[in-house]
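Forum: Protein Structure Q&A
Topic: Joint prediction for protein chains with partners

I've read a bunch of threads here and the consensus seems to be that you should model interacting components together rather than docking separate models afterwards. I'd like to see that in practice. Below is the full input, 573 residues plus whatever partners are listed. Could one of the regulars post the assembled result?
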Amino acid sequence: MAVYIHSSVCHSACGNSYLDQSLRFTTEPNTKLEFATSIDEEQQNIRFFAMDQVPLDSSEARLFNSLTTVVKQLIKSSGLKPEELAQTALLLGSTSLDIGTLRPSEDKALGLPKIDRLSQYLQQKFKLHPFHLVINTACTASLNAVLYGKKLLEQTNIQQVIVIGCEFYNQLTTKGFHSLDLLSSEQLLAFHENRQGLILGEGIGALLLTKTQPQQKNYYRLMEGDSACDTSSLTMTAEDGSHINTVMSQAIKKSGLNANNIDLVKVHGTATYNNDIAEYNALISYFNSPPPIMALKPFIGHTLGACGVIELALLDYLLAKPTIPVADYISEQAQSIMLPFASADHAMSSFAHVLVNHCGFGGNNAALVLETVQS
Amino acid sequence: MKMTLFNYAYFSHSRALDNKSLRQQVKQKYALGVRRLDNFTLCALAAVAELGTEIQAYKKLSLISCAQYFSIELIQQMLLDLKQNRAIRPLDFVATVGNAANFYIAKEFSIDGSNLFIGADEDALTKSLLLSSLELNADKEAAVILLIWQETEQERFCHALLLGDTQEQHNKYAYQPNLKYIDELSTMDLPVVLEVNL
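Posted by a regular:
Agreed with the consensus. Here's the joint model:
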């Protein structure tokens, strides 16, 4: 049974794909965060990719308004009727969820909201099927949500699945990544030999997965994926790329394909030393001659658990465009680029099979193969 | 969707129990690596240990875990540190990701299949059994360890279920459709064939 990306919406630093005629792919972060990471330290300037046109704060109102807006936009663009929404399950992937809105409570043993607060809110707001849950596997969260959404469609009587990836600015995440010394003070240079680390971003992505073929000219069929835990380290995957290799090769094999069938790899590409070298090693060990790669984090930052769905939504958006975004540093510093990137003058729709790769804290690595369908 | 429940175990501790005491308890009883682990993770490790050596019989194991809340003590402490402008400790921060507990469990018990941490409150048992069934359908020779945490203000429980694909020879086992309450498992004769539907 085939499963498709029927519709998508994303709201990131590039703009809102439902409202904006053309998203803006620029590598310059749109926000500078200024705070002291502890009482003993001086003020830090931390670069950040905030959602476009949404004033930055960590309030509940901002979180719920922007989340509601994107899901509403997805429902409008998909044309789902109320009786169809009642048959639509919801899976939400995120790393930090609503943590920015929480206040510590020393009085109560259970002072926190439940993990599925956001998915429950959306299920009730839009009168969706009672099956909703949150997947929280760090940076692979929303890609895992897509993988399990696909399985739900294939094996149950659920008719549609909305998959959300969301990540919102909050101090805990920013200070946490700063404490790990993973942040770049300049640019996010994915797959550059002199990369200096990641830049965080926030955003919301929403996909509607269906068993019915979409009506548009080009669309994605989800082939197979794989996801597993690399137990070598809590904070990084094996640098030799062996675990990423395993997950990628399983996804490709389960899709009935081999290395020669993959035309493009959309890398995780966080620009940390470890992530990029691990992905690089995985790609050169699996492919005799790696296909061109594509990276989206230089334009939206690392949106953590949301990156799976946000980046899939961007790929879906790009299917209708004649070119793909390629960061300037790729051509300006070509001698320092680890693997060849796809060139901008290739339409997204020209890549028949795309491998999508994601890695996360807590050891979770995930991969998915997309097939481009041209109707 | 059917699956066979081969074994069930649980571990619980008082919420008032401090981390050092729980670490000592788990280490002494189960001989597990417990360094730097929070109570949420320790409870789950102990629950899996209670399943016994039966889990080693499977060539491939996947792990699905389900909780209403994150590690409350850890998150509360981080939020307090943030409020009081204390430095965030890197490993404490990493430990707050939902699947940190899953990492330690996978490492301790050599679980190299799928590894999923989900948040669910209402119908948590049905949802997590359904996900387990989706997983088992993908690989009939594998087993799934399903963990479900439950918490009150006084106590934390972690329930561990060892689930496998239902084969023809399992027809002789008792059949339990639409299991509503996880506590019912402690009184059942196992193995039992579970059925879950949306």
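Chain A touches chain B through 61 residues (CB under 8 Å).
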